[in-house]
Write a structure and sequence with these properties.
- By secondary structure, this protein is α/β, with parallel strands linked by helices.
- The chain has one domain: 3-Layer(aba) Sandwich (Rossmann fold), CATH 3.40.50.150.
- The protein has nine helices and seven strands, in the order αααβαβαββαβαααββ.
- The chain has a seven-stranded mixed beta sheet with strand order 3-2-1-4-5-7-6, sandwiched between helices.
- A hairpin with a 4-residue loop joins β6 and β7.
Length: 235
């Protein structure tokens, strides 16, 4: 990727965790507002679809990893599920706006017993992990057999014209809006951080190799977002 003079290099893997944590601490107060604006409210629809694909029954206990300020936890509660929020950023948890027990911790070392949860969700965070594989293995470890994980993430449209328009909006307009209302550096990083994501075949294979099965990808809104779903095999 060729950087413009205004762009700073993406953090290396050795500095990524600290950089990302500090960034989310800074943008937490206006995080929800920016999400609504830059997605034109589509993020709310995507989260509801994430919860539906989880197939969790009423009263189930579901962990929302990288819960941020609580939007996905709110969607889970509306579906009758008991959410548990977890995030590395203290700033996000301090701005949490939903009712759920919270864990300030690392998604690569989740402090929850084996086979104890009815579901796991994660919204727009895969590209922020230092390594996706340990996270996926942790998910497989804490899920009950037969329960699901639903991972919501950005994506790149396959259609040539949609791809071009999406790239311009994501890389030019989003940082501009973020700079006015929040933190320009953060909202310049977020679009470019897509380069950290493995390609479609790689990430589906990673999910399977983690010990999960029945892996599926659902394209959302013409392919600008994606939902990755998998199940822990029954014993």
């Amino acid at each position: 990727m060729k950087l413009s003079r205004q762009q700073t290099p993406l953090p290396t893997f050795s500095e990524k965790e600290m950089t990302v944590r500090k960034m989310f601490d800074r943008i937490a107060p206006r995080y929800d507002l920016l999400n609504r604006l830059i997605t034109f409210g589509l993020d709310t629809r995507w989260r509801k679809k994430t919860v539906r694909h989880l197939h969790a029954s009423s009263g189930s206990n579901v962990l929302d990893v990288a819960c941020g300020t609580g939007d996905l936890c709110s969607s889970l509660r509306q579906a009758g599920v008991n959410p548990i929020g977890m995030d590395l950023s203290r700033g996000m948890l301090e701005s949490f706006n939903s009712k759920a027990p919270l864990i300030n911790g690392d998604a690569l070392q989740i402090p929850i017993h084996d086979s104890s949860l009815d579901g796991v969700t994660c919204g727009f965070a895969l590209r922020n992990f230092v390594d996706i594989n340990p996270f996926l293995k942790e998910v497989a470890r804490i899920l009950k057999p037969g329960s699901r994980v639903a991972l919501l993430e950005v994506d790149e449209p396959k259609n040539r014209y949609m791809k071009l328009g999406h790239s311009f909006y994501f890389n030019k307009i989003v940082p501009f809006i973020g700079g006015i209302l929040s933190d320009k550096a953060a909202y310049s990083y977020l679009p470019r951080s897509v380069v950290y994501l493995p390609n479609e075949n790689e990430i589906l294979k990673m999910i399977e190799q983690s010990g999960l099965s029945d892996v599926k990808k659902v394209k959302l809104t013409g392919g600008i977002a994606q939902l990755l779903i998998a199940e822990k095999p029954k014993n």
